[in-house]
Amino acid sequence: MNVSFAPQIEAAAQRHGLDPRLLAAVAAQETGGPGSNSGRNVVGDGGHGHGVFQIDDRYHTFARTSAVMDPAANADYAAGMIADNLKRYGGNVREALSAYNAGDPNATGTTTDWGGGKVLGYADSVMRHYAQICGETSGSTPVDMARAAQPDASENTNGLLNAMLSMTSSSSSCQLPSMAAPAMSSWAQQRGLDSTGHARDKASDFSIIGGEN
Asked: Does the pLDDT of residue 189 top 90, yes or no?
């Protein structure tokens, strides 16, 4: 992947059974924006969002530790949350992403203005990054060309992603993100997280798999 922190993102994705391009797309959404498919290791959201994946210190004890600004540990934490969401929501990528952002699988969440009158909800915006990253890594035509090829594809995750996938069906290099994920108890419960992925006890502390990387 031609993105920042690619080794850390790929390693975290592999540990949690995710498509690394999906994890990279989340980073791009969180700290890259519509002009970049690479995330940045920054503090944002009024000082509450930490690292490449903007882990919020109001909800996650990990975000109040020094490890949060380690891109490897940050990516691993985010990957664990997304993998658990995929497991919880039966492999539904859109719901898993919405829950990562807003704690609700049906929420529009944070909106992003991509220009040209395209304002996308969180999950749709992540999947737009994903389609672009996938196009870069596979050599396939990215999102706008997919829409041109199938004009009836609506500006949402299913229509847009399906159009993009149909263009690359001859190659296995660009596929829907994997739903493979560890069981909820193997990650979230060890870290004292509730069903939304938030800390049950904000005063508690816990370690992070891969934090030593």
From this structure: no
Considering only 54-63, 103-112, 183-192, 202-211, which range has the smallest mean pLDDT? 202-211
Measured between alpha carbons, how far is 108 from 122 in angstroms, rounded to an integer?
6
51 within a domain of the structure (yes/no): yes
The model carries a pTM of 0.70
| Residue 204 located in a structural domain | no
In total, how many domains does the chain have?
Answer: 1
DSSP symbol at 53? T
Average pLDDT over residues 52-71: 97
On whether residue 186 sits in a domain, the answer given is no
In a domain, 81, yes or no: yes
Helices (H), the chain: 6-16, 20-31, 71-88, 93-102, 122-138, 143-149, 157-167
Would you state the pLDDT for residue 1? 65
pLDDT at 175: 53
Side-chain half-sphere exposure of 8, counting CA atoms within 13 A: 26
Q: What is the domain range of residue 61?
A: 6-175
CATH code at 98?
Answer: 1.10.530.10
pLDDT of residue 135: 83
